[in-house]
Amino acid sequence: MRVDSDLSSTKSRPRVTPLQGIKVLIEGEGKTFEAVTDEQGLYSLPRLPDGEYTAHPLLPKKYTPYFPAEEKFILGSKESWDFHIQRGPSAYAAFQIAWNNRLNGRIVDSEGNAIERAKVSVLIARSPSPSVIERDEFDYHPGGRFQFYGLNPGSYLLAADIRAPFVDNSRSTRFYYPTATAPDQAREISIGENETLDEREIRLPPGYLVRQVEGVLVWPNGEPVSDGWVYLAASEGSLDDDGKYNWDSTDALGRFSLQAFVGAEYWVHAEAKRSEKGTPIKIKVQQINEPLKIVIPFPKRIDR
């Protein structure tokens, strides 16, 4: 079956299309068998000899399989240490297929610095507002890079959402490709069945900048905390993950580095294993920031 986004719906839902005429190879025991899918996408192969096999579809170039791309199974009573493999008198192998296309890009600030934490979405334009059909699974993008694959062939808008406790509450937090704050200013992206689009850069408009908040985490005697954790939060008492904007673990010298937006106010929280948390520090991020030195209490003694 091919899995598509349902572009006719007001909500992003997958649409399943059975694929007819797709060959499926079943290989094992030194032999290769072949089945072909019918109009419902179904296939079967009766009277296979007992043994260990692998099944996988032979796809046209315009398609690519989702994980898993193949299925292993054992027919008969042959023993195996892998308990994840199907075994018995019959087996079932289903494959989900996507369009073989890729959309690669980067998120950068107005100076071209990579933005590591953002949420990127693919949207289809509709009145009165664009509808999200694909949203990336991660909000951490090393080097600012993101990727989508298996998109329905067509034209889309590309957007990036950022999170930051800006002092100016009127600041935008959603931006569109290539450099826009409103969908009617965005440029559409068209992608085909078997196509790779590279370097689609979403650049934030002037005034939106990221900088590194760096520092060191130490014990009261000045020694570095090598098993520490430092994060930026919305408030002095932020405990939930939704209230955290960025986080980093300390290295062997107690050093940490966190990306933050210029013009935003954060609370810097720090903690270490078996230790009380340090006192949060409130900062306003500037274009140039002095290194921080955070001291946390020694671990409490454990009575045995």
Describe the structure.
By secondary structure, the chain is mostly beta strands. The protein folds into 3 domains: 2-99, Sandwich (Immunoglobulin-like), CATH 2.60.40; 102-203, Carboxypeptidase-like, regulatory domain (Immunoglobulin-like, Sandwich); 210-295, Carboxypeptidase-like, regulatory domain (Immunoglobulin-like). Helices cover 0% and strands 43% of the residues. It has no helices and 24 strands. It has strands at residues 2-5, 14-17, 23-28, 31-36, 51-58, 63-65, 71-75, 86-88, 97-99, 102-108, 119-124, 131-135, 145-149, 154-161, 174-176, 189-191, 196-203, 210-218, 228-233, 244-249, 255-261, 265-272, 281-284, 292-295. The strands form 7 sheets. Strands 4-3-5-7-8 form a 5-stranded mixed sheet, with no helix packed on it. Strands 11, 12, 14, 15 and 16 form a 5-stranded antiparallel sheet that branches. A hairpin with an 8-residue loop joins strand 22 and strand 23 (281-284). The protein is flat, with a radius of gyration of 26 Å. The N and C termini lie far apart (60 Å).
